[in-house]
Amino acid sequence: MNLNNNKNNSDFSVSKNTARGSFAETKLDDGFLVLTYRNESNDIQTVERNIDNRFIQFHFCIKGSSEFIFNNGNYRLKIEAENSLLLYNPQRDLPIHLEVHSKSWLVSILVSIKKFHGLFSQEADYIPFLSDENKDKKYYKDGKITPSMAIALNQLINYNLNSSIKTLYFKGKALELLSLYFNRSEDADIEQCPFLVDETNVIKIREAKDIIISRMAEPPTLQELSEEIGLSLKKLKEGFKQIYGDSVFSFLFDYKMEVARKLLEAGNHNVNEVGHKVGYSTSSHFISAFKKKYGTTPKKYLMALG
User: Fold this and answer.
1) Which helix (H) or strand (E) holds 223?
2) Which letter does DSSP use for residue 6 in this model?
3) Cβ-contact 69, 36 below 8 angstroms
4) DSSP code, position 53
5) Residues 242, 227 contacting (CB under 8 angstroms)
6) pLDDT per residue over 145-198, tens digit each?
7) Could you give the angle at the alpha carbon of 153 between the alpha carbons of 24 and 65, nearest 5°?
8) What is the per-residue burial (b if ≥16 Cβ within 10 Å, else e) of 113-132?
9) What is the reported pTM?
10) How far is Cα 262 from Cα 215, in angstroms, rounded to an integer?
11) Local structure of residue 220 (DSSP, 8 states)
12) With left for phi above 0 and alpha for psi between -120 and 50, is residue 72 left, alpha or beta?
């Protein structure tokens, strides 16, 4: 399968490729690529791509599962739904040999270390594998896909806009994903966030998050929430932003839309029922909210899933 390739990483092949699977590569810039894998078949599909040691690899499994195979099958690394994997080894090439399991979706971002330094030049001390002491070491990190990342990933995998803007759109989403991946708020530095020195405050903010998630259809007001967790309104707002990188209701909106998306995909509820489950009294309000977040209506989203 001939796709748009970087000149130094030219071989990209897919075996068992059927009408129920799509595998595509989009070149965003020199040393900057996005690969999307979508296997809707009942078979495992194998994807291979030559990648040399200049590249940092970010892999995101949206649904299903897949396995990376290394050293001619001697080592296998599984990636499950809603998980991410970062791979970087400046000492040796890490070609992609991937078994994409049935009903599985993945997105990969490949970026050269030179390009990456250009993007994050001011953050080199913050990102472990960019520091001087680690720059020649291999780096591996697995993590969870956050609701905000899931939104961008689904927009990439379900892209249905005009082909003339695809590269620009993918580049914007790839940069968004990298920024979310390295969002400081997830592991906030205590010096930058003195609020986090007090573990009691952190526990209360996490309690606030659990409350709004558990009661997402009818969430409390901010004032009610602050009273329930025993923290002032000001500290609730500031602390939530520092820990979760977003306001309370912006975070809740993202969460509700992600729940709605999964309910729609499961196919057990119609659009009106899904909207009601996540707190929308009318289907029109839910459709409007869904379109605001995903750029398409629930019905069109389901049609795109096939």
Assistant:
1) helix 222-229
2) B
3) no
4) T
5) no
6) 887 888 889 889 888 888 899 999 999 999 999 988 887 544 444 334 444 446
7) 75
8) bebbeeebeeeeeeeebbee
9) 0.58
10) 18
11) P
12) left
